[in-house]
């Protein structure tokens, strides 16, 4: 199943908005080419601050569990940078690459202490006459020393991971969750896989080949996530979509089918009260391509409304901090703003840097 490269938008952020934004406004955080983080006022759409990243092009943004820090991974030098969400100051900046070693990874997750950062990636070593590619591995990065302090290869049974494999960590930091074709439950002490939930063969009647659409949406309860899923029945191979909920504390997974699936579906964006969810569905290709917002009632797992919007060849989908606006952005300099209640277009915001695939976060 094809998926969009979407933001993992954390709704539990608690950092205060900067004084440079409009009264009552939130701040949107976006990556920008070639090495920028853009802070955008979500009322006026103006860029109110920019942060230059020493380690290069941002590829992923995410909050710490308490919302006080922003973790950024970068492509240019295999970097990880940590920003203070309130002041926008860079607290940590490191690059794993050196003249003879390169690391390739996209995103990751910090441990609860903020000292370590977990990634799934590979190491590339430059030798005299060739580059030697290592196998995909679980890696633990010490953010204080800037070094990979533990690396364990992923077994053939569990790998290789897909592009932008999503990670989550238990509140106690002892368990890492890897969301791909399987959900891997990994012990952070030694990177041993202690459990597997096979999404291609779920334990639900009439379902198989379950795939998660887009990003995992963090709910307000710690350790709770939700996403759109697509599954195929084993008899006539009809594809249906629904809502998947994950309780990492109880290790429980719940799938609620809703209806026939589109060809491509984005991840789920959830309003702050947890009652409404939105996704993007795409059917057709090239000139026959059709893009729609789909709106769900998450309390009853029913579809409420849908509306078409102009497609782009490549784009990302997100939501404002208060759940009242929907954003379509990238590739390019603009954010198209839609009203979440009516699903109608409101305005375009032109930014100062081309938007990267790092995703979108919102500061209150």
Automatic annotation (TrEMBL):
InterPro entries: Host-pathogen_enzymatic-act (IPR051200), Quino_amine_DH_bsu (IPR011044), WD40/YVTN_repeat-like_dom_sf (IPR015943)
Family matches, as SUPFAM superfamilies: YVTN repeat-like/Quinoprotein amine dehydrogenase (SSF50969)
Keyword terms, alphabetized: Signal
Signal peptide range: 1-25
Protein's recorded name: Quinohemoprotein amine dehydrogenase subunit beta
